[in-house]
Amino acid sequence: MSAWLDRENPARLGELVGRVPVADAPDVAEAVRAADAAQRSWASRPLADRAEALREAAAAFEDEDLAVLLARESGKPVGDCRGELRFSGVFLNWVADRAPEVLADVETDDASGRLLLRRRPFGAVAAITPWNAPVILAMLKVGPALAAGNTVVVKPSPLAPLAVSALLERFPDDVVRVVHGEAGTGAALVGHPLVRKVAFTGGEGAGRAIGALAGRMITPAVLELGGNDPAVFLPDAEFTDAAMDRLVMGCFQTSGQVCMAAKRLYVPAGREEEFRAAFTAAAARVVVLGDPLDEETTVGPVITARAAERIRALIGSGGEPVPLGRVACDLGRGHYVRPTLLTGLDDSSPVVAEEQFGPVVPLLAYTGVEEVLARANAGELGLGASVWSADEDRAFDFARRFEAGFTFVNTHGRTGMALRAPFGGVKRSGHGREYGDEGILEYAQTCSVHAPAAFRAGGGGMAAAAYPG
Ligand code: NAD
Known about the structure:
alpha/beta; 6-stranded mixed sheet; about 40% helix; binds nicotinamide-adenine-dinucleotide
């Protein structure tokens, strides 16, 4: 290893948080070989032992020093970082509880014969993760993969590599490896012939590159990519304080740098002013832009200077900006961007048509339910969506017609998640699922063992075979 990657605190320019060594192709190959070598003996251990390893790791997740480290490297408020660590532990325990049932052999013996379905591991899994929720997004891959008997090589984002690496050390040494670096390190990992499954979360550009490389290797890949989530308020929706507080944080948590943030707000024509007033008042209650280590901060800086420039350009690209929330820091100290509502835009504006991935959200009016559905479903992305209504049945009827992998009802984002509910995209938001039983089954391949009834004693032989050869 020759080079190092430095990580600077995005809230305090010039403050070095830490550094990681860059893994080159031979380093990556060594990590994959080690993961491959350890895999068969890991898979041969009883599932109860593997589940216990997840529980043991999870027990050490509530670590204040690591929550602070995560806040310093990512710019996320420290309270959010504590929440991410705690939730990651909860998730690992949930996998440990669910895996025995989800991964159990299924055996049938009936008039057609005897059929055994086995859930077998793939081998060494490559996990490539983004910076915005680095701990939970790594655990969503590591937990199910280990439970199913795989080993894992993780490549965290160089923008938040430190806390997650420390947490990955809490798993048995030989079954989880970590390599650091940028796209080149990730490509060396995905392209290694001993990698049997790829799990990627990140942006569309990297997703295309990784999907193409995995395709060339005939390695299956889960791709969890970006979103441009619509939040649709049906005509009967009330803009209550509680609902608006949830929505505002659904837009601006992690400074809007969340795959499933609400990114387009659709309200009935004629109610824009009412909505704008309610949304602005909610932001005044719940948005405190400030240093991530200050306990009252709810929104921190964005991740890099480049991201800040890109988002400021979007805010300046048209429409009327409404600055939101309270500023509780010196904005020049870090990559701060004031949360902003944009009004007066149409659907062709970049901030509506594309994933903005920052603290700016457009307010759009619609006149008919069919019209808003078509506009919400327009575009290539289909990760999350939300529908808001006083009538839950009406909301569910509408939700059935969304082109989205996950629809929230009367909330949006983290407050609407459930461990048992699979999460992932449709269209170009990717394929494969995390969370839920499906998120565990992603890391197992079903292998069949079959004794046809035709060839068992008294079974009738060739004449009775289902598909005579
Ligand atoms: P990114 O795509 O820039 O990076 C993600 C990871 O991929 C990093 O580890 C990076 O080093 C690596 N990488 C980049 N190019 C690569 C290549 N060519 N080959 C191999 N590895 C490569 O994403 P980011 O900026 O860290 O995260 C933001 C994006 O992630 C947003 O689009 C967001 O919506 C998306 N995201 C999606 C989900 C989801 O569950 N669907 C969750 C979080 C974030």
